[in-house]
Amino acid sequence: MAGLSCSLSTYAAQTDYSALMDSIDIHKPNYIKVYQQVNRNDLIRQINESPAFAPGKENYLSTGAPIEDEFEKENADMKAQIELRYRFTKDIMPFHSYLIMNYRQTTFWNIFDKSMTHNFNPSIGLTKIIFKGKHIIGKASLMAEHESDGRDSLNNHGWNNVSLTGEYFFNPRLHFEGKLWAPFGIGKENSDLMKYRGYGYVAISAMDRSKMVRGSLLLNPRGKNDGVNLTLDLSFRLSQNDNRYIFFQYYKGYGEELHNYKQYHSMLRAGFAIKQDFASFF
Length: 282
Fold this sequence. Notes:
Number of strands: 15
Largest sheet: 12 strands, antiparallel, barrel
CATH topology: Outer membrane phospholipase (ompla), Chain C
Number of helices: 4
């Protein structure tokens, strides 16, 4: 695990845009106007020359237990996520977008009975950086996604969707994100999945001035006005020179595990993560 962590951390450092963002003219924050003024051609050239293969937004290993029940070894678990990205093209796609493939695998391991479930989530589609004049104001992605628990046909839980994601860069340390998905090909074993997963989410991410602390809040309304799934994340960077973090994550709601999507979770976990730079465009 240490070798993998070091390799991912080093590789991710090659693909973030910290050096580029440090050279950008950052306006004095008025917290209303867009904040990043760049030479568009220089930015596109840097992206085109970056490695096509890289880690995704978050790779982590964590452990925890429910906080609404008494802690017992029977209800403790481990949660791990691997996320990878491959950029097939330079900015030659329609609207100067990029053809991107993402792969995310999330694993839940019940420590006591050693049972294990997985969420497999590959996706492919277009991602575009959005400019307004010389200013970067955000990014948008249109993706075709599949998710399943990888079990045999009789026990498989799976679905497909077309998703649209938008991110708005409010200022250098505050980003807003929204995602909507249109489901299709939902498996018979989980035909009511949207009741628990809903049709999208909204999220806010923030970073402190020292760039050492990051936090996020994600709200995922469930279908049929049946409440909201909530994810809170607080991460502490280990040093200014890398992208490794100690983090705490709280999840409350349904649908976290695709195989057990009807099971309510209120889990507090802590662990180790490798995250993309806050200013990364993919």
